[in-house]
């Protein structure tokens, strides 16, 4: 007998009601309270759908995000001017064929990154309160954020890409620690091998290597059962998923 494992990668399609509410909120057509009710309802329905089909691991459908990456820019200041195209530029394929979006001209961090709130702690707390299945939280791979460093716009705050990604890593390390403290037992690192493209279309191949190096730093925040330390199984760096059985928080002195 073959035993299979399945869970939702992360995102589910947002319902029309939520899509409409996301357009209405910035214009003041609906209140923050009304928006939160619609958003919570979308999450509740996403959880119910996964439970109904028998999944033992569930996500919130990433209903509270514009993109699977966007909780970083929502929770951290310093990224400068950006819109949804910051996450979508490049070459994409759909039923009409190749779709090409240009890199936004002003894309690039302009100041030292500062966390305003945790990225996904609230997402996890709500999800955890609504299911008796294993709640999974997704975080973006640090290598993805090379996209938000610009030699033109970022050098005053971050002279090098490496210095910028070092701060991204620290933010993600702290996020993982907080999720573990809240009881998270499944953290998924999204798109650890995704490359990016430079302004002139040159593929930055070293992002693959950077992703692995920085993933190791982020995932070293995860405790795998040895009291007093956080370790990570090396193979998890390459699968991009970190399962945290009986995770415990490191005691700070």
What would a concise description of this structure say?
The chain is of the alpha/beta class and 253 residues long. The chain is 37% helix and 12% strand.
The total count of strands amounts to 9
Largest sheet, spatial ordering of strands: 7-8-9
Q: What does the main sheet amount to?
A: 3 strands, mixed
3D shape: globular
Percent strand equals 5-15%
What is the number of helical segments per DSSP (H or I, 4+ residues)? 8
| Total tally of structural domains | 2
Description:
This protein has 253 residues and is of the alpha/beta class. It contains 8 helices and 9 strands. The protein has 2 domains: 8-64; 80-129 and 137-243, no CATH class. Helix content is 37%, strand content 12%. The protein has a 3-stranded mixed beta sheet with strand order 7-8-9. The longest helix is centred in the last third of the chain and has 22 residues, at 161-182. It starts with 15 loop residues before the first helix and ends in a 10-residue tail after the last strand. The relative contact order is 0.12. The model is unreliable at 194-210 and 221-253 (pLDDT under 50).
